[in-house]
Request: fold
Amino acid sequence: MSTLKTLLKRVTRNLRHLQEREAQYGGNPPLALTNQLADHRQALEILEEALRNQPTEADLPALRALLAALFLSDDVLQDLQNLQLPKPVLPFEPETVLVAAGSFLMGHLSGVDIPVYETPQHPVNLPPFQMGKYPVTIAQYAEFVRRTGRPAPPRAGWFGEKPPRDRLNHPVVAVSWFDALAYCRWLTAQTGRVYRLPTEAEWEKAARGPDGRPFPWGPTWKAARCRHAAAQTAPVNARPAGQSPYGCYDMLGNVWEWVSTLWGDNWQTPAFAYPYRPDDGRENLQADETFFRLFRGGAFDMPAADLRLGLRRWYAPAHADKRRGFRVVLDVDDVDGL
Reply:
């Protein structure tokens, strides 16, 4: 399947190659190349306008005919034949924000009160991804419970499958790692877009930005910017001043958040130490449930002195806790229409 965005990327890439060929002729390219350049530029204009106007299925034949009349490469014409519009965004889909490709600083420098398993600080390079702007809310998780019959979170104020109505915009809590994984798979099936749990590295980059800052908002502690030292959770959008550099809320405090990454089967010693490597087995989703899984970010009841973005905790993946929730990642190739 091709989408307007993938077609736009293809035409943009091809135009760049044509411009490189044009430069080799020293300002006097052959007429055929000049015509190809002009048609690719026109195709970009057509596609950009289509993205702005959000065409319907009824508009696709005219769009295909308009582009097919241009002198475009075979791969673009093939994509054009397979062009489909993305599924509409569903009301219960979590909002996501783009985390750009590139390197960031993960972990802590060694220091007083910094455990060795949070060191050393090291660069990690990641491709782009879309991170949940907020933790998954009770309202969003309630749709999953209602449609699948999965048991509601225990001891979390639910009445059967009915969520607490005065807390719908709070983060869902008392969900296990397996619950969070099942939610992501259900959401993928419902939307046709690939949702999953973030890796530990993705979570930390979305929280810290590229510069290794200790708090989402910057280098110094600001008490009003995160939910801490409190008796219960707060709405996920309650603290806009606490956003991370990429626009993620509640990356520190409010609820701990499950990530996909393994700690290991020994409570005291990690099987997968830093530096972070995604290919060393720590991202194995099929690992036995005797292996502990990591969660990040801190919770509403923690004191300020304990909160920092490099903080790591772990527990059995089948365990659920009233201070623990999760957020999702959307694969960047599936963001059309969002």
